[in-house]
Amino acid sequence: MATFDFGERRKSCDSHGNPREVGEWALHVQCPWRITGNDRVLVGNRDLYYPADYRYGGEAAAGFNWERDLTLRDKLLDSLFKSGAQELIVDRTDVYEAGGLHIVFREGLSLDVLPCDSVSDEHWRLFEPDKDAPHFVVTGGGIET
After folding, report:
1. How many domains does the chain have?
2. Which residues lie below 8 Å from residue 72, measured CB to CB, with a gap of 6+?
3. What is the per-residue DSSP string for the chain?
4. In terms of residue numbers, what domain contains 70?
5. Which residue, of 12, 62, 99, 113, has the greatest Cβ tally within 10 A?
């Protein structure tokens, strides 16, 4: 599952009581997604399956384990968000047929969420972390709240 936070950051605790920061809104994605800019994919969900030092056309290092090792997705997301080099501001959002989501940022980047099956329990959800409020959930069967 990929998670994206939006809005002002605030302190919270995870399910084990460890401190963390969350945004005002959280988007949890359990289907294909990608971040694009300059007419190319900058990072996508399948980058998880390549080691951080992967080069196009190369082979993954022997023994690479995406559950244990640093992945290309980790590296690319870190370069976009965690370095603090840019703060993305949402310009607009569009929701398409069959639960597709397109978020356009002022900085020229976009996040696309692309449900691609009819049987998935959940494709994505938008909610306010740590609040007892309804979640907006998109599943293979439609929208739930």
Report:
1. 1
2. 47, 48, 50, 51, 52, 54
3. -EEEEESS-EEEE-TTS-EEEE-SEEEEE-S-EEEEETTEEEEEGGGGGSBTT--TT--PPTT--TTTS-BHHHHHHIIIIIT-S----EEEEEE-GGG-EEEEETTSEEEEE----SS-S-SEEEE-TTS----EEEETTEEE-
4. 2-144
5. 113
